[in-house]
Design brief:
Length: 195
């Protein structure tokens, strides 16, 4: 089974590309979604988060205050690094368990915005980067999250640049609204499936 990463900056369209792979019956591990699930269900992880960021990041019912946590980490790169350092090992362990249940597939995808930042590319056979022009990425996130362009740009600055990710990735999907995402995904699917 090949393990293929799919990455890209905020607003690049990773999720849209993953949905196309899902239509092709490819199993995808969504690391951001699993990380959020683990942050409210894994007792050891929750304790580490409390000790690093304070009890107030969880409400009395145990729900994570994502707005508060985001305000802490996205305004301070050092705090973001601490958060990723805490959550990352739990996600990797969970991914390893997940892979064991999908070992009969030709290939699976690991979706993560921080494949390179978290130094996990070496665990994967290949990495695909989804890229889009910055202005399109900003517009998508402003519309999706109802946020300000400057807030999106701050989050973009906290991520490795698209140019750096492109240099490190074997495959690139351009999501600029001009090129067909379906055609690009189908081409990769044929390669990975040996069709």
């Amino acid at each position: 089974m090949m393990k293929i990463g799919i990455t890209g900056g905020i607003g690049s369209g990773k999720t849209t590309v993953c949905r196309i792979f899902e239509v092709l019956n490819i199993d995808i591990y969504y690391s951001d979604i699993r990380a959020k699930e683990l942050m409210i269900s894994h007792p050891q992880l929750m304790e580490k988060l409390r000790s690093s960021f304070g009890d107030e990041i969880f409400n009395p019912t145990g729900k994570l205050n994502t707005t508060l946590l985001a305000s802490i980490v996205f305004s301070d790169p050092a705090m973001l690094k601490i958060l990723n350092g805490i959550v990352h090992p739990f996600v990797l362990e969970d991914f390893s368990t997940w892979c064991n249940t999908h070992h009969k597939e030709n290939y699976i995808l690991l979706e993560s915005a921080i494949i390179y930042e978290s130094n996990i590319a070496h665990l994967l056979d290949h990495v695909i980067i989804v890229d889009a022009p910055d202005e399109i990425r900003i517009q998508r996130i402003v519309e999706r999250d109802k946020t300000k362009p400057e807030d999106v740009m701050q989050r973009m600055r906290n991520q490795l640049s698209a140019a750096d990710k492109i240099k490190r990735s074997k495959y690139i999907i351009i999501n600029d609204g001009k090129r067909s995402l379906i055609d690009q995904v189908m081409s990769l699917h044929k390669d990975f499936s040996g069709i």
